[in-house]
Amino acid sequence: MESKDIQHPKDNGAQVHDTSGSDSEAIKPEYSSHGAHDFQTVPPESDDNANIYSQGGKNFRTLKRWDTIFILFANQIGLGILSLPSTLKTLGIIPGLIALIGIGVLSWYTAYELLQFYRLHPQVVNGVEMTRFVGGSWLEGVAGVMMMIQVIFVAASAIVTLSIALNTISDHATCTVVFIFVAVAACYLLCIPRTTKFVSHLGIPNAVSVLAASILVMISLGIKGPREVTDLDEWDRDIQIVGSPSFRDGLNACLKITFAYAANLSFVGYMAEMVDPIKDFKFCLGFLESSCILLYSAFAIIFYCLGAEYTTSPILGATSVTPARVAYGVVLPAIYSTGLAYGHIGAKYIFVNVMRWTGSLHEVTSNTVKSWATWVLSVTSFWIIVFILSNAIPVFDSILSITSATTISWFTYGFSAVFWFNMNWHCLFRDWKKICLTLLNAFLIAMSLFMNAAGLWASITELLDIFASDDSTIRGVFSCGSNAQF
What pLDDT does residue 486 have? Predict the structure, then answer.
């Protein structure tokens, strides 16, 4: 995720790149055809396709099609899936499924737009660098700040979930602030090494851990039912086909769904490390998004039907105490690795930019006092911010919704639409198809702005209501009360 100096492509001046038609029509003046493939591609060995990962003594562009698919799955399936059954409880099965599928399809389309823009600028290594081609260094700076906000929020959501798990497993043995401190300290210590090689191998165990914990809860709910149910045979499930939520509750449910599809931020980084991303990434993306839409829909329906009116978020707390504690124990590695991975990304981004601002970029990989001091200060400052944020928003649902409302909306939808307008600015109304795409992308930008405004209002007021509720043990920021579900 580090911000790198961009090498601008050849002849990238006044050409108009129409991406509305088939992929084979795009960029004919610049790139040669790749036969029957959908995309006009730059051959992997071409200088136009080079980025910093293919320069120097070692080529880091080693990801092939199935390598990328596994990484994408590991990155997409995480904490967000645990909140999906509760969205059906709020919206009802039919509206909830429409939201799950609709938001998933929009995320799929905007990720495809990233690929369209990437094939014009294959030398970039992350989504933040893409913004320089649209708005120059100032927009890249704004996007960099937004990226850091998202990374901090996602790391904080992992810390909050760790505190919930520790409170649940230990029966609230100590103050929640202490549990948050323990979780932050553990992530902080493992972020101290400047090269955390094993972080890249945590993705698959992360996804497996989440799914294994969910299966344990599913079995428990199927056999014993939710913890509030004393007699499973006499329990009459209250399942809403069409819910009647308030505007705020409905919007918060959609924000939680958005969080589950929030991996778009990392897609460009994976393209940059693929052997031939322009040829292979479209297949990888289609496989990922179609599978996730099916998995999320099935997961949400199964758990909502098992938990009915007692469905919780995260779903691990819906079952009785012992299975819930076991499930939280199983999911601990996934939660911890999420915090660790995002913590290293955030600290590395701070580190590289500080070294650039101080004119010491050549010392980034050196074992000098200055580079190590800057690195330790970067890691320390990052986790101090995460500690403060985790104590300010110690509620699982609220931190997911606020994260979606602040920056995820832009990195998943808004920026992709901006890139599309940049590629198609001179032919927005050429034909009916172009008009439809223009309206769709304008809608995506408007939706991002709406999620910023209304989404933040909905998520923050919900958090304040939780603080004020007589039933809540969390009475405000830096609260010692338990944030566990029982």
Answer: 74
